[in-house]
Amino acid sequence: MSASSRAVCVTSSVTLRRTLRRAFHAAGTQVEFADAVSGTDPVDAVVVIDQPTYATLGNDDRDALGKGRALIVMGASLEDDLVVDAMRRERWNHVIRDAEDPDDAELVVTSVKLTSGDIFGLEKYLAWGVKVNDANVQSYEAKREALLAVTASARDAGARRPTIARIESVVDELLMNAMYDAPAVASGTAPVTPNRISDQVGDSEATLRWASDGRYFAVSVEDRYGALAKDVILDHLQRARLERGRPRASPQNGGAGLGLYFILSSVTRFIANVVPGERTEVVCLFDLKQGGRDSDTCARSLHVFRT
User: Which of 24, 164, 168, 231 has the maximal Cβ count within 10 Å?
Assistant: First the structure.
């Protein structure tokens, strides 16, 4: 195995080790297990560690883990401000809340994306062979038509009404960010919204895609600016909490963070795929089997891939 297809997993959990062994084997990745960071060689490897173990590490061990290709932290919640602070300070780009019974497929996809560099496409998170719909959106009117198409598809997929409402709102926010906020961030100007619903937004076209495999309903929105940064996501996530879920628009960011906070609180998984200065794709997954009483208040997992 090459160094690029190695995984170093630091955990004493037998259950988690079993899951990680299955997932990394499926991804064609050589996996090494350890109870502690000392004695491991994380250089250029995908590093996985559970949150309780990470919390006990000293600075030297944390620095050692930072030499890996990427760091995946299991059992950490985005609802914990200490976790969000750690994501900002350390090289955490991947957080998966469930460490006891994680989704093998999510781990396989994450590993393959990290080792191959092939990061784009919502198909990676759905069963093979699903039909993927797409629409290019460049005006307010086109956005409205796209929202109708997505909600109709979600309804046909069996999504419950609250889930359909979340899907519609999330897609609306993603398109607004891609069409108005991303170009503004890239150029250092304030976002410009149209005066009429038929107006186009210059050449700021967004690509919307959606599909379902019966378990998850997935949507993605892509722009050609590559301006979304992990710190922006974390900034607005924390700011919205401090302002009790009613965050005030930031003049530096044109209010885009309000949408990001709402999206993170509405989806099951949030994935950002970014080539800085060139391309951003945000993929959001919704659990179709989740009932209203089981709804999460924040995404179960967050992944930020940058090439």
Answer: 24
Structure confidence at residue 121 (pLDDT):
97
Q: Global pTM? A: 0.90
Distance CA 158, CA 164 (A): 9
CATH architecture of 126-306: 2-Layer Sandwich (3.30)
d(CA 217, CA 30): 31
- Interatomic CA distance for residues 153 and 241, integer angstroms: 32
> Could you count the other beta carbons within 10 Å of the beta carbon of residue 269?
20
Element (H, E) at 232: helix 230-242
To the nearest whole number, what is the mean pLDDT of the chain? 87
Is the domain spanning 3-116 CATH 3.40.50.2300? The answer is: yes
- pLDDT value, residue 196: 47
- The Cα 167–Cα 172 span in angstroms is 8
Dihedral, 65, 70, 72, 73 alpha carbons, nearest 10? 40
DSSP three-state, residue 265: coil
Please give the Cα distance from 185 to 207 (Å, whole number): 18
Distances (CA, A) of 262 to 112, 165, 181, 246, 257: 29, 13, 15, 10, 9
Which pLDDT score is estimated for 251? 47
Q: Where in the chain is the domain with CATH 3.40.50.2300?
A: 3-116
Give ranges for CATH 3.30.565.10 in the chain: 126-306
Q: Tell me, what's the pLDDT at 236?
A: 74
Residue 293 pLDDT class (50, 70, 90 cuts): low
Map residue 89 onto helix, strand or coil.
helix
